[in-house]
Amino acid sequence: MIASPLPRIPYAKAAKTLLRQSVLTVVDELIRKDGWAATSVATVANATGVSRQTIYNEFGSRQSIAEAYILHRLDVLLDAVSAKVLGNPDIEHGFREAFELFFDMVDEPVIQTVLAGDRSNLIDLVKVVNERATDRLAAVILRVRPRTSESDAIIFADSLARIAVAHAMAPTLPRPVAIERVVRLSTVVLDAP
Asked: Which ranges does the entry annotate as DNA-binding region (predicted)?
């Protein structure tokens, strides 16, 4: 008998995952087409083919939908960042492209809306963003510089993520200068013996 290559996923978990993916895909389409201001829970529900109550049960609020969307976009961004750094033989160029992608994401309207809106939940969101970014950046660092210890990779990745998020949330420098500083820090640390 041939074993099934797919793991068995309980129906409730599979349905919830599909619902979240469908909603976030619709949110992305609506934001790109009409902007965040025109993207209501009712329009998301209608475009997804579920009731508003289903959306509220899954996400809780429009703000929570925005936060889930940001985390979804972050995961997409981290995939692209990894590809830019790992696919480029020049580490400096790879990190520059990666941080340009990050700042492009931060400039997206829904992310600007969340950053400018109710900041009561923002700290929790930033913590989650930093944890995900740290884990993924540490893995990239270990692939780019295998002789780096895992603890050093985590420390460096955490620092890079915090600096990038700080520049994004409370910019004090023009974007090109901020990117150049983060890239320079990256190359100084990664080129160190």
From this structure: 40-59
Cβ contacts of 176 within 8 Å, gap of 6 or more: none
- Domain region containing 147: 63-191
Give residue 151's pLDDT: 95
Contact of 29 with 47, CB cutoff 8 Å:
yes
pLDDT of residue 4: 64
CA torsion angle for 61, 111, 140, 20 (degrees, to 10)? Answer: 30
Q: Which stretches of the chain drop beneath a pLDDT of 70?
A: 1-4, 110, 113-122, 192-193
Residue 149 lies in a domain: yes
CB 179 within 8 A of CB 99: yes
